[in-house]
Automatic annotation (TrEMBL):
Family of this protein: Belongs to the binding-protein-dependent transport system permease family.
CDD domains assigned: TM_PBP2
TM spans (from-to): 12-32, 75-98, 110-138, 158-180, 209-229, 268-289
Protein name from the UniProt record: sn-glycerol-3-phosphate transport system permease protein UgpA
UniProt cross-references to NCBIfam families, sorted A to Z: PRK10561.1
Main location per the UniProt record: membrane
Bilayer topology: Multi-pass membrane protein
Source organism of this protein record: Hydrogenophaga palleronii
Annotated ranges, domain ABC transmembrane type-1: 73-285
Compartment annotation: Cell inner membrane; Cell membrane
Gene3D superfamilies: MetI-like
Organism taxonomic ancestry: Bacteria, Pseudomonadati, Pseudomonadota, Betaproteobacteria, Burkholderiales
Keywords noted in UniProt: Cell inner membrane, Cell membrane, Membrane, Transmembrane, Transmembrane helix, Transport
Amino acid sequence: MASEKRVVFRSTWLPWVLLAPQVAVITIFFFWPAAQALLQSFQQSDAFGLSTEWVGLQNFENLLNDPSYLASFKITAIFSVLVASLGIGISLLLAVFADRVVKATLVYRTLLIWPYAVAPAVAGVLWLFMFAPSIGIVSYALRGLGFEWNHLLDSDHAMTLIVIAAVWKQISYNFLFFLAGLQSIPKSLIEAAAIDGAKPWRRFWSIQFPLLSPTTFFLFVINVVYAFFDTFAIVDAATEGGPGRDTAILVYKVYYDGFKALDLGGSAAQSVVLMVIVIALTIIQFRFVEKKVQY
């Protein structure tokens, strides 16, 4: 039996040198901003940040007494569930179909990957134009069906718009992982099930989907983080948190209160709360959801 090969460094400093670039990037772009936000959450600054006053937990108390901030929790929860569930479900369906395509396989897969190259702000503007009440091609088609679309006045329409844009932007990422997972499943298992008389749906549900559980779990975590953080540009470009504040998810409210309302302390407190929420959700997912994953 072949022994396991292990790399042994002869010097004690070489591993740290190899890790230094990654550690520097994480420190500069994550730990340092997080520490700054935590410090500012206990302070109150003027609009220009020239003078600061230590206020302790006052910023957090103000958040708990702010109805609009509490409402953004519900908005974010609905938005995140829709984006994660629809994004994973549609991507899995497309991956299953693409895995069965025989002719022009490369063309189909390339077209499904393209949206990932589009910037989030561009994706928001793209769908904004298509759903524009006066000139949008989708809103025009909906009017032909007797449905009046106006995301500028209707909160449900606005939420639908940003969910569609966010899901469309993330589908390519999910699709790549699902397609790779499907192709890694031995074809002999599928063929054996087919010989035993299992229908395509039965083969997928009993064989393919359980073997995709590690990929599904990974994408579930990634999509939740994506919905909380990376959809800011989509919301800003498509609805700017409107109508009213009915599409102001937590990450957008951090930006709005900090850069438009110039409440630097309150914005920092919101960013700390958002960071804690995402960390807690990730821990819960790995603690409980991962138990159902079959590796």
